[in-house]
Amino acid sequence: MGHRLSSAVRVLASAAVLTANLLTLPAAAQPSGVTRTDLQRHDLSASGREAVQVRVDLAPGVAFGRHTHPGEEIIYVLAGAIEYDVEGKPPVTLKAGDVLFIPAGTVHAAKNVGAVPASELATYIVAKDKPLLTLTK
């Protein structure tokens, strides 16, 4: 009986984490052709801050609109070619192995400009009490 209860608790805990992750990213922020996979989330030694790692996959030609984060974003391109439009800078196209740093609160957008799927590893150092992503105009 104890083993069944333990398994049930694990399933419920996993469901709660999945629900929390889905609720932190509004449906409007997830356009068709974009897949965000949460990899890890941990509290930092700095009070009120956390590190979040997400894999973002973009289908060919798909863009992720202008948005901000409540902290820094560190990007490592895993595959493909992604154009980043960071406010105050000219657009830049990065390919697998390239990196980009986006300061806290900076408006930016990304688009897969290649003919194959593109992927990035996004690491966020953010405030825990704010949404991970906020869409802008």
Automatic annotation (TrEMBL):
Pfam families for the chain: Cupin_2
Domain of life assignment: Bacteria
Entry keyword set: Signal
Residue ranges of every copy of the Cupin type-2 domain listed in the record: 55-121
Signal peptide: 1-29
InterPro entries recorded: Cupin_2, RmlC-like_jellyroll, RmlC_Cupin_sf
PANTHER family assigned to the protein according to its UniProt record, in alphabetical order: CUPIN DOMAIN PROTEIN (AFU_ORTHOLOGUE AFUA_3G13620)
Protein name: Cupin domain-containing protein
